[in-house]
Design brief:
Layout lengths: L24 H12 L11 E2 L1 H10 L4 E4 L3 H7 L1 E2 L4 E2 L3 E3 L13 E3 L3 H11 L8 E4 L7 H10 L5 E4 L6 E2 L9 E3 L9 E2 L13
Parallel strand pairs: 1-8, 2-4, 2-7, 7-8
Antiparallel strand pairs: 3-11, 5-6, 9-10
């Protein structure tokens, strides 16, 4: 057991089937990108926390850093965890192009992700053993690979939030398919539609 917050890998390795968000086209394209990608939940360090555990870590360790790697437009329509320290998107919707065959805008990797994350961590004076918590929508194809990139920078305590910001989908009832189970937003944790200007990602950084 590497940490009191570490869980066994197999506890969270479920296929992530994204739900397109009709409220924002950019969010829909991000969801499509995750649907097309192979499931990627297992990290090199094997460190995972639920959103509730992540919040406890932040409360108990003032040095712990929470990183959100979602697209800015996705955050605009679904909300933002208030204790977030760093926001750098892993992928971005390319609104300058349109894929006629797919009938949507393409998603591409943020080519500057590594440089932007490194700079942000330096600004926060992150040390090799600083607890770093990475969160995306559902703990799948963004937080895990992003955590691995940070690990490869030499950090040894990098966690992926297994249920992400929005959590899992309800299996039954009138709201079946809606992401209303677990996750930061559904765990009575502090979140808002407002984003701290000092934390918000800027494309030119």
């Amino acid at each position: 057991m590497k940490s009191t917050y570490q869980t066994t890998k197999n506890s969270f390795f479920r296929c992530a089937i994204p739900l397109a968000l009709v409220s924002a086209l950019a969010v829909s394209t991000a969801a499509q990108a995750e649907e097309d990608a192979s499931a990627y939940r297992e990290t090199q360090l094997g460190l995972y926390v639920t959103a509730a555990e992540a919040y406890d870590m932040i409360q108990q360790d003032e040095d712990a850093l929470l990183i959100d790697v979602r697209d800015p437009i996705e955050i605009k329509f679904t909300g933002f965890a208030e204790p977030t320290d760093i926001h750098v998107p892993w992928v971005l919707a390319d609104r300058t192009q349109f894929d006629a065959e797919a009938q949507t805008w393409p998603i591409s990797r943020n080519a500057d992700f590594e440089a932007q994350i490194r700079s942000a961590l330096e600004e926060h004076d992150a040390q090799e053993d600083t607890p770093i918590i990475v969160m995306c929508r559902s703990g799948a194809t963004r937080s895990a690979p992003a955590a691995d990139v940070i690990t490869e920078m030499g950090f040894s305590q990098v966690y992926s939030v297994s249920d992400g910001f929005e959590g899992g989908k309800l299996a039954e009832g009138d709201s079946a398919g809606v992401r209303a189970r677990n996750g930061w937003r559904n765990s009575d944790l502090p979140w808002s539609y407002s984003v701290d200007p000092d934390v918000a990602w800027h494309a030119d950084e």
